[in-house]
Amino acid sequence: MPHVLIVDDDANTRDALVELIRSDGLTTAAAGDLREARIQMVRQLPDVIFTDLKLPDGDGVELFDDLEPASGVEVIVITGHATVESAVNALKLGATDYLVKPINFQRVKAILSRLPRTGDLKAEIGSLRGELRRFGRFGLMLGSSPAMQRVYDQINKVAPTAASVLLIGESGTGKEVAAQTVHELSLRRKHPFVAVNCGAISPNLIESEMFGHERGSFTGADRQHKGYFERANGGTLFLDEVTEMPIELQVKLLRVLETGVFMRVGTTKEIETDVRLVAATNRDPEQAVEEGKLRLDLYHRLNVFPIQLPPLHERGRDVQLLAESFLNGLNERYSTNKTFPPSSIETMMSYNWPGNVRELKNYVQRAYIMASSDSVDTTAVPLQISLSKPQAAASVTIPFGTSLAEADRQLILATLEQCGGVKTRAAEILGISLKTLYNRLVEYGEDGKSRAGNEADEVAAEDE
User: What are 86-108's pLDDT values in tens digits?
Assistant: First the structure.
């Protein structure tokens, strides 16, 4: 059934509308100000909003800014101070109707009667989002593995709140994309998202970059400069590699987070800021505290809601999903229609990806450039050393006195196992042809396994 949100600071009006609407068989939510209304809208997008024009923290028409143009939400404006000008302004902004206090409840019933009762559009949208998530898309993030589903659950819970988030994960796991997703699913999504790499700024300039400076405050400061906290005001500030921030600046950062005020370099005037902080690190934060890289008090302030991002080798089939997404992006950009053959997918699935998603993205781009046809054959772009996922037997021990033939056999079989059975990759590592590898496997009694799939076609192709 349709869902209705009532926004009014007058409790009697709210209660009367809630009772009337519920008696009509609809679900309702109520809010006394804009802040409460926005929280309710994140929890469940309504089909209809009844909002008072004058609210304690602003104007009811500000809610239009929080609605997507294609959302289809009807907004009915209510006021006790009716003027032609206010009515026209509300209608121009997109209001579908206008009610004057005391409210005519017959008009309310007439408005509700226009709503479709067959099928719940918002439930369908929620179901669609659920389907997209099962197919591996959540906000700006991509991946359907159980590890990523756990991350999506955590982001979904924390995004609508004001809590600080600490993203922990190896380099290249997508911490900035996760931070952007937190922002896009929050109440601040209409305001700036500002990303800062704390390790990429000179220690001599980081305070000026973070808080800004006044003209003449130091040599070269020829104009006033707004820092990241000012630029992100009202939105989200993402501090990547926060453990690389100088300790003396961490003290000032902590003060800003606790008081909501800061000072530009070269002045004693305090400036208020309203930002939601998302921080990230590729270190173990507790170890960083022990090593003196991160203040304990700042760690506790940032660690309100920690989220661990999994490395790519723990995400299973996400490797294929991401690789094909990157390839599709290149195809769209350059108007091509290139695809990965099954052998290329197997090669990428068998690799450990120490550089995580960033390394995979760069590798797909190299393979795309090197492909001489519509088939992106990864054998043309050798992967770096550290070629496979960690296995229990990551090394081969050959006792003294072992024959050369036996040592050869053990090395070939161990390499094949480390490559997850992908023979094209094993042959490349061993420095032998694919045909030679098959011949050796036949000698070792592995011929039944070696001819599986369509890899035999590769041998035939090599003979030609």
Answer: 656 676 667 777 787 888 887 78
Fold entry, domain 404-463: Arc Repressor Mutant, subunit A (1.10.10)
Of 254, 251, 166, 256, give the one whose Cα is nearest residue 211.
256
pLDDT of residue 457: 42
Rounded Cα gap, residues 111 and 114, in angstroms: 6
**b or e along 344-358 (b: 16 or more beta carbons within 10 Å of the residue's beta carbon)?**
bbbbbbbbbbebbbe
452: closest CA among 409, 419, 422, 412? 422
Nearest Cα neighbor of 103 from 82, 132, 72 is 82
pLDDT confidence tier of residue 209, bands split at 50, 70 and 90: confident
Question: Which residues are CB-neighbours of 253 under 8 A, at least 6 positions away?
Answer: 210, 245, 298
Q: Are 358 and 172 in contact (CB under 8 A)?
A: yes
Q: Is residue 340 within 8 Å of residue 365, measured between CB atoms?
A: no
Closest CA relative to residue 309, chosen from 137, 149, 193, 198? 149
CATH class label, 135-308: alpha beta
User: Token pair for residue 434?
Assistant: 């694919």
The Cβ of residue 237 has, within 10 Å, a number of other Cβ atoms equal to 24
CA 207 to chain centre: 28
Please give the Cα distance from 80 to 204 (Å, whole number): 57
- Residue range(s) of every CATH 3.40.50.300 domain in the chain: 135-308
Beta bridge partners, 339, equal 375
Average pLDDT, the chain: 82
φ, ψ of residue 163 to 5 degrees: the values are: -65, 145
- 3-122: CATH architecture: 3-Layer(aba) Sandwich (3.40)
Q: Among 140-149, 206-215, 294-303, 369-378, name the one with the lowest average pLDDT.
A: 206-215
Q: Where in the chain is the domain with CATH 1.10.10.60?
A: 404-463
pLDDT of 284 strictly over 90: yes
362 phi and psi, to 5 degrees?
A: -65, -35
| Helix (H) or strand (E) run with residue 98 in it | strand 97-100
Sequence-distant (≥ 6) Cβ neighbours of residue 284 within 8 angstroms: 168
From 4, 8, 102, select the one nearest 52 (Cα to Cα).
8
CB atoms within 10 A of CB 432: 14
Residue 83 has pLDDT above 60, yes or no: no
Q: Which SS3 state, helix, strand or coil, does residue 447 take?
A: helix
The predicted structure's pLDDT at residue 381: 85
Cis before 341? omega within 30: no
Query: What is the pTM for the complete model shown?
Result: 0.60
Calculate mean pLDDT across residues 158-185: 91
